[in-house]
Amino acid sequence: IFVGIDAAPGISPGCYIQAVGKIYIGDYTQIAPNVGIISSNHFMLDIRKHIVNEVKVGKYCRIGMGSIILPGVVLGDFVTVSAGSVVTKSFPKGYCVISGNPAVMVEDYSDDERIKQKFLRYKNQYEYNGYLPKNKFEQFRRKYLNVDPW
């Protein structure tokens, strides 16, 4: 699991993160309570086997309460997932609101440069990846982790 700056999957109560495959969560992404993110499914004919994939969630995303993100999903930067949504397909362009089961795009800002520039890009004064300061994390990642930043 690669967790970006000021993102904390699992800090909200009831979250479930299943990382049989890799999961990438971008900087400043907020995850509400009871969110599930899974990167593999059981093989239909043999539940002892997994179909492994990756999940990639961009920067500044907001994942609403009770949402589920399924294997293979890619969410670009600034995607808002409405509460209770089940995300079964990717929205890689980002800058949108998705909602429902299965999730569909209900607002699309990806082609409007004027609106895209208004999205808040805040920075925390103290940038950390987990418990490591940003300036020490890259060396740690290369040495100990089998993930590349997205």
Task: Describe the secondary-structure layout.
Layout: E1 2-3, E2 16-18, E3 23-25, E4 30-31, E5 36-38, E6 40-43, E7 46-52, E8 55-57, E9 62-63, E10 68-69, E11 74-75, E12 79-81, E13 86-87, E14 96-100, E15 103-108, H1 113-116, E16 128-129, E17 132-133, H2 134-144
Parallel strand pairs: 1-3, 2-5, 3-8, 4-9, 5-10, 8-11, 9-12, 10-13, 12-14
Antiparallel strand pairs: 6-7, 14-15, 16-17
Q: What topology, given as strand order, has the largest sheet?
A: 4-9-12-14-15
Q: Tell me the distance between the termini.
A: 11 Å
Number of helices: 2
Please give the share of residues in helix. Answer: 10-25%
Low-confidence runs: none
N-to-C SSE string, H for helix and E for strand:
EEEEEEEEEEEEEEEHEEH
How much of the sequence is in beta strands? Answer: 35-45%
How many beta-strand elements? 17
Radius of gyration, taken over Cα atoms and rounded to an integer in Å: 16 Å
Query: What is the averaged pLDDT score?
Result: 91
| Main β-sheet description | 5 strands, mixed
Secondary structural class = mainly beta
The backbone outline, from C-alpha atoms, is globular
